[in-house]
Structures are given as structure tokens and as C-alpha cells.
Amino acid sequence: MISTQLPAIVLLLTLLSAPICSMIRNGDHAWKLAMFAVWLSVAAAFALMSQVWGGTTLSYHMGGWPPPWGIEVRVDELSALVLILITLFGALVISALRESLRTVMRSHRHSLYYATFLLCMAALIGITITGDAFNVFVFLEISSLSTYALIARGRDRRALVAAFRYLIMGTIGATFILIAIGFMYMVTGTLNMADLAQRLPEHADNKVIQASFAFFTVGIALKVAVFPLHYWLPNAYTYAPKATTAFLAATATKVALYVMIRFIFDVYGVEFSFSQMRLDMLLIPLSIAGILLGSMTAIFQSDVKRLLAWSSVAQLGYMVLGVALLNTSGLTSAVTHMFNHAMMKAGLFLALAAMIYRVGSSNLRDLAGIGRTMPLTTAAFVILGAGLVGVPLTAGFISKWYLVSAALDKGWLPLAALLIISSLMALAYIAKIVDAAYFQPVPDQHQNVRDVPVSILTPVWVFALLTIYFGIDTRMTAGVAERVAQALLSVAS
Amino acid sequence: MLVATAVTIIRTRKLMSAVMLMGFYSLLCSCIFMVLDAVDVAFTEAAVGAGVSTIFFLAAIAIVGRTSKPTLPGKTVVPLIACIATGALLFYASFDMPYFGSADAPVHQHVAPRYLEDSPQEVGPPNVVTSVLASYRGYDTFGEVGVVFTAFIGVLLLLGAGTRRSGIERTAPGDTNDESMRQKIVLREVSDLVIAPVLVFALYVQWHGDFGPGGGFQAGVIFASAIFLYALIYGIVPAQKLLPPRKLAYLPGVGLLLYAGVGVYSMLMGGNFLDYDFVAADPHDGQHYGILIIELGVGITVAAVMINIFYSFSERSL
């Protein structure tokens, strides 16, 4: 019985423990409950993956009503992969969160913080598994609201401004997506995604659908932070509380990207999105601009948190580019990189959070010589950084390999060269941190800095080891991604 | 009128009048919804938009002051272009939209007929909106309650209502302010007359949702606004004595869990999440009980969240 109910259980574990967490006054007890819930949902996510492994699709009817009347939950390999991404990386961050929060907040606020965190996670899970267009919007609202609250909780006063800016941008994005969904409903009379996909093609020339597509593209581009709509991201990531950044960087934009892929390929359809609306003509230049601008800006940052945030803008560019190239390798790279980048960035931000935990700042000057005072944390940081650059035997290499071969498949040599140049730029900004960490003298006030407690160090190293593991064993990442890519593209031909 | 109001809201620098106009704007919207036959939506808009959110804005103004800073003229160019582009796109889309009120519109052809024709047998309530909201798309409504709950947790996390033990003591200096309100006899007499019927009306809306427009969302808001009225006239302290913030802070979670509890119960009985057919032995009864309980959950969450947010705002402003 449990196995058939899994799609509901994976969501309810986090969604229901959130209100319970908020009622527990003792922060430590709340943390234990949160840990219990998220690690169970990790198990549920892996169980779901094993059920859909090989390309089957699970359909679960909420309330027992068959679609399109009721709301359908659909899990396939792509959503199972994103589920693992959210739950596993979220669980790792929560594991480190208790120690990390101790310095930031008074303890009675901790329970609320965990509750918000769980709500955000639950909402992202909800978005990932749903097969209903309007339901996406409902959970998008929960995830956005909780994200704003999490960001605004940052210690810096500027966190409030960053959160408010994100709130405005995010609300515009969400409203555009809502308009898009409303328009689709107006023309087809249904909200179920699979049903929409069947009914939309006959309306391809309908101006309402075209407008709906435009609204959706702009709205979701805001959420994914596609250049030039990335404006909110660096500030939001920089001023968010340190461990939160790790979670947001790993999940929020990735889930938005997932929604983008879902809608473009599964709802609007490849034929409409690319042949008729020429989405690739828009996305390819924008993503290239995002890659170059993001990497370039990252090189000139002196604050490591901000540097990593700008690097996210560039890395998201890779993923969007992979989608827009519209061949199997491109999509494979997008999906693989979605997973790999989530893992590496979460790890990097968490390692950085560990450094801030001890040093109190993320400025390069304060991090000088940290390789000697905090050897274990810094070593993990370097491994994760190498993954970001795309060094062979790390996860980052795999996704970049697919992306470069996607460019070569198209016969676009300059693009492939450009990707290699941008990797060198990534090397430049990571090298800058490594240089400061290992080759600069330790400032006097940080002489007695030590490595962080095991409860933070363990998740950081798990991220680092996973980065190496997924650089060697790619069955779950690239293997799944390739099948997903073929399935998404085969609908077209 | 809607457009004129919106333009005035943007142009004015007096926050007070902007807030009042926004209330008016919501009232106009609700009239439009009424004309469009969306009675339930109109009801919600009137209660939330014109009522509750105006009060929240007023509480916010009490903190930040009455006028806004002038903005630099150059800064508005990009938003203006974005607005024009959005408007143009909406206009473009309107060419192919189905005619207003047309029965052939796809919306009425595909999913809706089953809602209209079969819902009395399958679900029960004569009000189709309730059937769709609570049963066919109960999972969405569950998500919406989650949204409300998230808003509550967010406010609590940032402002910290109910968790601050000194809340009641701290409000003491504000009493001089309330004193003036208490002296306004007319206001007090009228509100004394109004509050009790409003509370009863809220309960009526809550339980009558099956038959007419209404349900948990509207009832929760109406209930909360009665408490607001009481707090505005008599001051926040007696209101907090009536509904202690520390206890009230539990209620939003209780509502959400009540809703989910029905779903989990139906799962334990062998159905899917929120499948009310399994709540009681007879599917028809099951649907009835299920909807009744989840609407109660919605009502509790909404009312408690509204009052909690109001408390945390007014604690700040005093």
C-alpha cells in the first residue's frame, strides 16, 4: 500500500512536519523532527526513482478523481531525479543547519526557521511531482513566500532589501505564469498538463496561446534567473543566511528550470515552442550573454559569497543553453548539470558557510590562509570548486562534456570554443579563492581559527565526495538525463 | 473607474489616501466579479481586499508615516516599458479570445460539464463551486491553505508575534491612544451592535458554504475582521486577553493539520489522499463530512493567521 501512496507521502512528510515544527518551542526538538522527516523523504524519493527507473510514469489521482477533473500527480524519471535533488541536498543542508543557526538566531526562532525551510522544500516537491498546471502555481506561491522569508532572515539589513526586490520580481514572474495558465485554460478548458499537451496543437495559431507562451517564457525566465532577468539573484544569495543560500542555490532555480522544461516540451510541445515561436533564437544568445557576463563579473568579486552567486548566473546559462540547443546531448547536459550544479553549489555555499561560521566574513581578505587554519573544510571547497570548473573525474566535467558535444553536434565550433573559454574563466575565479586560501599569510586576528564541528563538516564532505562519485558513476545523472532527453524530444518527431 | 482609481493610487504621495483608494479598488473589483457571476470570488475580494488588507496597510502606515519619498523620474522608464509591453500583449491576445459569456467557449465544453451535471450525485453540495474547490480540486485548496500558513510563518519569523513574552506589557503606553477611541461613543455603540452579528454571520458563512456562496476562506476573514473591529475600538490589550497570542499562534497549524488529517485518514482507509469517499462508510456521507471538516480547517487557519498577523503589526506600531 505504501508504494502506491508514495507520491503523496513524499510531499506530506515535509509539508505536515512544518506546522508541527512551528508548534514545538524547543529548537532542538524541532530540528530532530525536521531531520526525521527530510531523511524519510529522501528514502521516499529514491524509492520513487526505483519505481520509475527505465522510463515508466506513475500517475496518482488526488482525491480519487481521474484527470482532467481532479488533480493528477505524475512522477517520471525526470521528476524523480529532481525529487532526489531537492530532498537529498535539502536534507544535507538541514543536517548542518542546527550548528550553523546557533550563532545567528535566538533559539526560540529556530523552530520557525525549520518550519519555513520545510515548507519551502515541500512546495518545491509539490511543484516537481504535479501534473496539473494550476497546481504548479499554488506550490510556486508557497515556495516563493517561504523563500522571501528565509532570505529576509539574513543578519545583514540589506537582506531585507534583497528579499523585497526578489519579492517584487518573483511576484511579477508568478503573475505572468498565472496569466499564461489562465490563457491556456481559456482556450482548452483544461488544466491537466497531459490533457493540455493533447489539446494545444490544434490551437497553435491562436493568438491567446501565443501570448500565453510569451507570458510563460518571461515569467519562468525571471524565476530561473535567465540573463537579463537575473538581477535579483546575486543580492538574494549574498544576503541570505549562509546555510539557506546553500539550499536556495541548489534547489529554487533548478526547480524553476524543471518547470520550464516541463512546460516547453511537455505542455506547449517542441513543435510549437521551437519551430513556431523560435524560442531557441531568444534563449541561445541570452544564455551565452549570461554565461560570459556571469563569469566575468564573478572574476572581479572580492566577496566569495557574491562571487559564487554570479557564478550561478553563468552556470544557469549553461543549463538554459543546453535546453535551447534542442538536441539529445544538449538536453542531457541541461538535466545532468541541473543535478550536478545543485550538488556542487550547495556544497560550495555550505563550505563557505562553515568558513563564515569561524571567520565571520566571506571577504577574500579575511579568508586568506584559511587552507592552513581550516584544512579539511578548504580541501572540500577545492574539490567542489574543481567540479565547478569541470575538471575530469568530477561531476562538472560530465555535464560540460555533453554540452560541448551538443555544440559540436550542431557544428557550431565557435560555441564550443566559447564554452571552453568560459570554463577557463571559472578556473580564474576559483583559482583566485585557492590562491587566497593557500598562498596568502593568515591575518593576525584569525590565527586561532579551527575547523568546524563534525556536524557541519560531514555534510560538506558528503557533497565533495558525491561530486567525485557522480563524476565516475553517471548512471543516475547522465544515464537518466539521456533517457529523459530522448523521451522529451521524441514527442516532436 | 477601476483604471482611474489605479492611476490615482500610483500618482498620489499620501499613503493614507492610497490605502483608502486601494480599498475602494477592491470593492470595485468585487462588484465586477459579482457582475461576472463569480459570487464566491466577489465575496472573498470584498472581505480580504476591501476589508482586511486595508487594515493591514493602515497598521503599516502607523509604523512608517504618511507620505512617500518622491522617486527619480529616470527610474520609471524601464517599468513603464515593461507595463506597456504587457498591456500590448494582453491586447494582442484578446483578438482570439472566445466571446464574452459565450456558451461555446472551450472552458464550458471540456471539464466543466461534469462539474455541473454530476457533482450533486458524486460530491453532494448544491453549490458547485464548493464541490470543485473542496473535492475535485481539494488538493489545490490544500495548497492554498499552505500558502496562507506560509505567510503566517513568514510574518512570525520576521516580526515575531506571540513569541515575544513582553507583548502585552509593551503595549501599555499605547493605551493613552486607545483612550481617545474609547471615548467615541458612537463608534463604540455601533461596533457593540455589529460585532456579535458579524461573528454569527461568519459561522453562518462557514457552515452554509455547501449551499450558497461561502466557505472557510470567507468565514475566516469575516471572523477575523470582527476581532479587528473589537481591537481597533477597545485597544489591542483586551483583544489579546480575549484571544491570547501565544495560544492563537498554534491555531494556523491546527487548521492545516485538520485539513491534511482528513486526507491522511482517507489514505489509511485505503483511498488516495483527500479521497473523501473513504472517510465514511457511505461515499456520499464521506464527501459531506470530508468537505465539512476541511472547510473548518480552512476557516481556522485563515482566521487565526489574519488575527496573528494583525497582532504582530499592532505590537510594532504601539
Distance between termini of chain B? Answer: 36 Å
Main beta-sheet strand count, sense and barrel state of chain A: 2 strands, antiparallel
Q: How confident is the prediction overall: mean pLDDT of chain B? A: 75
Rg of chain A, Cα atoms, Å: 21 Å
Q: Find the structural class of chain B using helix and strand composition.
A: mainly alpha
The helix content of chain B is: over 70%
Run of helices and strands of chain A? HHEEHHHHHHHHHHHHHHHHH
Read across the widest sheet of chain A, the strand sequence of neighbours is: 1-2
Instruction: Let me know the number of strands of chain A.
Output: 2
Order of secondary-structure elements of chain B: HHHHHHHHHHHHHHH
Q: Approximately how much beta-strand content do the residues of chain B carry?
A: under 5%
Secondary-structure map:
The complex is a heterodimer of chains A (493) and B (318).
Chain A: H1 2-23, H2 27-52, E1 58-62, E2 71-75, H3 77-102, H4 107-129, H5 133-152, H6 158-188, H7 193-199, H8 207-224, H9 232-239, H10 242-276, H11 279-299, H12 304-325, H13 328-359, H14 370-373, H15 375-389, H16 395-409, H17 413-439, H18 454-472, H19 475-490
Antiparallel strand pairs in A: 1-2
Helix pairs in contact in A: 1-2, 1-4, 2-3, 2-4, 3-4, 3-10, 3-13, 3-18, 4-5, 4-10, 5-6, 5-10, 6-8, 6-9, 7-10, 8-10, 9-10, 9-12, 10-12, 10-13, 11-12, 11-17, 12-13, 12-16, 13-15, 13-16, 13-18, 13-19, 15-17, 15-18, 16-17, 16-18
Chain B: H1 2-11, H2 15-35, H3 39-64, H4 77-94, H5 112-122, H6 128-136, H7 138-159, H8 167-170, H9 175-183, H10 185-208, H11 216-234, H12 236-242, H13 245-248, H14 251-268, H15 283-317
